[in-house]
Write a structure and sequence with these properties.
By secondary structure, the protein is mainly α. The chain is built from 7 helices and no strands. The chain starts with a helix and ends with a helix.
Length: 134
């Protein structure tokens, strides 16, 4: 019985590692695109940066979860993860339209712009995940 339960372990490991790889790629790309240095701000105890980055990461992970659950194979999952990454980058630039100095305000620790960015990213991620019907 235990061996039957563990039969899915190789597939689990492949998709889990694929998800981790996608998250690392997202963090590398996203933090290079944004003008503020999220990780340094977080190290400096800036809650605005932590909120914005954390919620954007959730906005990215939701479609990755959907891709893992619904994709035909790992390559398919990676393709949809890249689409999720692109959506999050686009959201960052759209969210800056009504708040042009968004990055500077997050870097200065202002919570309202960080919450705006983070929740917009999360909303886009939820829509992205729900739209992945293949």
């Amino acid at each position: 019985m235990i061996l039957q339960s563990l039969a899915g372990l190789p597939a689990f490991l492949v998709y889990f590692c694929t998800g981790i790889l996608a998250v690392v790629a997202y963090l590398l790309v996203y933090t290079r695109v944004t003008p503020h240095n999220e990780f340094q701000l977080i190290r400096d105890n800036d809650p605005a940066a932590a909120i914005a980055l954390g919620l954007s990461l959730l906005g990215f992970v939701l479609p990755v979860v959907s891709a893992i659950a619904h994709s035909a194979n790992v390559v398919d999952c990676l393709i949809w993860s890249m689409i999720a990454l692109i959506v999050q980058i686009v959201v960052f630039f759209i969210v800056k339209v009504p708040v042009p100095n968004l990055s500077a305000r997050i870097a200065s620790g202002e919570l309202a712009p960080a919450i705006w960015l983070g929740l917009s990213s999360l909303a886009a991620g939820a829509l992205n995940a729900a739209s992945m019907i293949y």
